[in-house]
Amino acid sequence: MKVEGVVFDLDATLVNLGGFVNWRAAQKQVVEAYLECGCSEDAVKRCSEKNLFDMLNLMEEELWAEYPQDEAKRIQGKAYAVLDACEAQGVSQCHLMPDCMDTLELLKEHGIKMGIATSNSQKVTEQILELRGLRSFFTAIVGRTPELRMKPHPDQILACFKMLDVNPSRGIVVGDSVRDVKAAKAAAVYVIAVPARFTRIEALEEAGADRIIRSLGELPSIISSL
């Protein structure tokens, strides 16, 4: 396979943002946003027993089942806006993951198109890329939006490849989490996992990762061998 495009995850793959965001407080604020919008207390309580991003996916299913499409999107958009503000607090402190810049430069030199599909805020993602000097590497960025289901669904990844004008069969996905791997497999895309310190390698293998590497620095040679 000649790789024409790479779709990256953002947090814990290219940059460390999550280490500077208070996710516990963020989830509490998102729960409050759902309740203020009139969502069922039982549904919110049930969904909030999961981690933040799983809760968002579950609540989206609840909203689509309970409300008209426009209202469901409006409520989910309210919840996302609250989370956007929480993530924005980590922008100034976030930093690049090891070998990130060198890897992106090598891929760009070889003419590989690059994009980002992330469950993080679109606006925050753009801010981070500008701040850390990465924006010029990416021609497609797909962040969190009510119009697309988040990982582990394939929607964001497929949208990103479409924006890159790359057939997914000629691309790869690079991410750190089980959600990244499951989303890539659902999109029928070759996936390389770069586990973060809190990611279980066994879980990545069970999810179907095609390759697992220790750092982004290994990526160019693997792509050359595909």
Tell me which CATH architecture of the largest domain applies here: 3-Layer(aba) Sandwich
Strands of the widest sheet, in order across it, are: 5-4-1-6-7-8
CA-based shape: globular
The radius of gyration is 17 Å
Distance between the termini: 5 Å
The helix/strand order is: EEHHHHEHEHEHEHEHEH
Brief sketch in words of this structure:
With 226 residues, this protein is α/β, with parallel strands linked by helices. It contains 10 helices and 8 strands. The protein folds into 2 domains: 5-17 and 93-225, HAD superfamily/HAD-like (Rossmann fold, 3-Layer(aba) Sandwich); 22-88, no CATH class.
Keywords:
about 230 residues, alpha/beta, Rossmann fold, 2 domains, 6-stranded parallel β-sheet, 8 strands, globular
